[in-house]
Design a protein that fits this description.
Elements (H helix, E strand, L loop, with lengths): L4 H4 L12 H13 L4 E5 L6 H13 L7 E5 L6 H13 L9 E6 L6 H13 L4 E7 L7 H5 L1 E5 L5 H15 L5 H11 L3 H12 L7 H8 L4 H12 L3 H15 L3 H11 L7 H19 L4 H19 L1
Parallel strand pairs: 1-4, 1-5, 2-3, 3-4
Helix pairs in contact: 2-3, 4-5, 7-8, 8-9, 8-10, 9-10, 11-12, 11-13, 11-15, 12-15, 13-14, 14-15
Length: 319
């Protein structure tokens, strides 16, 4: 297992990209016409933005794609000096191999400083004849309007559970991974539409060299079993505060969770509890308050136990 599966199984063409047909059909039209505008790809992590950019470059330039394509990560190179230096230097040189233009791909472009974005918009305009930009980001609202107006915007959606399951099943078959159906469902749940997370989690679990079950999936992904979280909340609602606190300790130690990790899972589990909608509203408001306190630096154990105590009080009002 020397290869990273996210790279080994990365789609090579736009036709192979999973779950983003509304995007790939438009990108294939650019490949057919041998022309494209500047692009802004926006959406959640692990949904295919980088993959589509690489596949587009390969389809556009063929074997010459590496000479006409440069990938930069704006999280590492986010200042104005990068725009004035490395980007401008690449943009002003002529394409290779008879290509009409070159492509600069900037991943995580929402991390660019405002000064860098202001300098980038002029570079995009000045060298548009021989260079196209593809900007990838999670939040398009962090990209200034002048850049957005220069780009065709493509919005990527989270992958469906069927898309993730089908792709994972292909890897399981080709790699000979022994995984049971319950674990596969748990892996799809953990991914939450992020294919990269799903594939990485599968590889980590498979590296242990034994049958992959549900407990192993949650242990290797840093998430608690949703059933354990729900059981803890139901125990608190029944009025048994001490036992629910012990279950909290066991869950956090077994799965190595931080306070923010467990509060996110509690948030997801609230909707499955047998309480009224008004009680869920009150509880959701309390969860938001406690999550804010944890982020601001309060003691996470005290805050989580306070949440369990609040659940005990809600349950006590029903008895």
């Amino acid at each position: 297992m020397n290869e990273i599966w996210t790279e080994k199984y990365r789609p090579r063409t736009l036709d192979d990209v999973v779950g983003q047909k509304h995007v790939t059909e438009r990108l294939k039209a650019y490949v057919s016409s041998r022309n494209m505008p500047h692009l802004l790809l926006t959406g959640p992590a692990g949904t295919g933005k980088t993959t589509c950019s690489l596949a587009l470059a390969k389809g556009m330039f063929g074997d010459e794609w590496k000479g006409n394509f440069i990938e930069l990560n704006a999280s590492d190179e986010r200042g104005i000096d990068v725009v004035r230096g490395k980007i401008k230097e690449f943009a002003r040189t002529s394409p290779l191999g008879g290509a009409e233009f070159k492509i600069i791909f900037m991943d995580e472009a929402d991390a660019l400083t405002s000064d860098a974005q202001a300098a980038l918009r002029r570079t995009m305009e000045k060298y548009a004849g021989i260079c196209r930009f593809i900007l990838s980001c999670n939040y398009s609202s962090k990209i200034i309007d002048p850049i957005q107006s220069r780009c065709a915007v493509f919005r990527f959606k989270p992958l469906t559970t069927d898309d993730v399951r089908e792709f994972l099943q292909r890897i399981v078959t080709e790699e000979g991974v022994d995984i049971d159906e319950e674990a596969m469902s748990g892996l799809v749940h953990v991914a939450r539409g992020d294919m990269r997370r799903a594939v990485n989690s599968l590889q980590v679990a498979a590296s242990l060299g034994r049958t992959i079950d549900l407990d192993l999936i949650y242990q290797t992904t840093g998430m608690a079993n949703p059933e354990a979280v729900r059981s803890m909340l139901e125990t608190a609602l029944s009025g048994n505060f001490v036992k629910s606190r012990d279950m909290l300790d066991e869950t956090m130690i077994t799965f190595g969770l931080s306070g923010q990790d467990i509060i996110r899972q509690i948030h997801s589990a609230i909707f499955d509890l047998a309480i009224t909608d008004s009680e869920k509203v009150r509880l959701m408001d309390k969860i938001g308050e406690i999550e804010f306190r944890i982020v601001e630096g309060s003691n996470e154990r005290i805050q989580l136990e306070a949440l369990l105590a609040y659940l005990v009080m809600i349950g006590g009002n029903k008895r």
